[in-house]
Amino acid sequence: MILKKDIEEIKCNKCYDTGWIKTDEGVVRCDCKEKEYQKKANILMNIPKRYADATFENFRPISEEQKKAKNISQEYVYENDYKKGKGLFFYGKPGVGKTHLAVAILKEFYKTRNIIGFFYDARILMNDLKSAFDVSSSNKDLLQRVIKTPILVLDDFGSERLTDWARDIINYIIASRYNEELPIIITSNIQIEAKENPEQLRERIGESITSRLLHMCEFIEVAGEDYRMLGKAKD
User: Fold this and answer.
1) Chain centroid to CA 181
2) Which is the most buried residue in 52, 93, 157, 181, by most CB within 10 A?
3) pLDDT tens digits, residue range 149-174?
4) Among 132, 128, 131, 181, CA closest to 152
5) Is 156 left (phi over 0), alpha (psi -120 to 50) or beta?
6) How far apart are CA 20 and CA 129, in angstroms?
7) Where are the alpha helices (DSSP H) in the chain?
């Protein structure tokens, strides 16, 4: 028997706090729980607070390049090329939506395939890894997660020239994922004229890393107005 006090304590009138509702398409997770699960997933995937709400739905393309990049990103999640190690390399000037798309991909993989990926700003990763190696071997778990996570996003990659140490670590990460056919999604402000002639990339990160990335990733230019200046979105 349902008591009055039980009804008064119910917070969601849609699912009655069960977390699930019945629709014509079947049983689905209620919105009240979806936000809770997404928040937990963001933490697990290391998604920054600034991009906590970034999704395909709220990505508003302005240019044709942005529309194309969004379409490719959505198709990527629903196709199976990622199982063979295919990744994506978004490049273009700051503020055009590269990070937004990369985060949206991670979220969609979690939502549709229950795959928990891992997000890291490339510069912060290098600093955190260096600190981990300097302090304790137990902290090297971070490197293992970066190598083995099902979907890895490296954000703002190649924004500055790599030190010899950083180049060796990046090469190790990419080579490990390449050999195990684990995909990597990269965002970069490096202006690459064409995939067939990415001299700036070679110059910045080295021949070995560039060679593997050219084989692993589809290169996608994201061009358009700076969203930050327009006040509409985040990179």
Assistant:
1) 17
2) 157
3) 999 999 999 877 778 888 899 999 99
4) 181
5) left
6) 41
7) 4-9, 31-44, 64-78, 98-113, 122-135, 141-148, 164-179, 199-205, 207-216, 227-230
pTM score > 0.85 for this model? no
CB 47 within 8 A of CB 103: yes
Looking at residues 40-47, what average pLDDT do you find?
Answer: 92
Q: Is the pLDDT reported for residue 34 higher than 70?
A: no
Here the tokens at position 211 are 């060679």
* 89: alpha, beta or left? (left if phi > 0; alpha if psi -120 to 50): beta
- Kindly calculate the radius of gyration of the chain based on its CA atoms and give it in whole angstroms: 20
d(CA 105, CA 151): 9
pLDDT on residue 176: 96
pLDDT in tens, 59-73: 999 999 999 999 999
- Give 56's DSSP letter: S
What's the full length of the chain, in residues?
235
Position 37 scores a pLDDT of 72
22 by Cβ neighbours in 10 Å (0-12 / 13-18 / 19+) ranks as exposed
3-state secondary structure of 218: strand
Q: How many CB atoms lie within 10 A of CB 169?
A: 19
d(CA 160, CA 200): 12
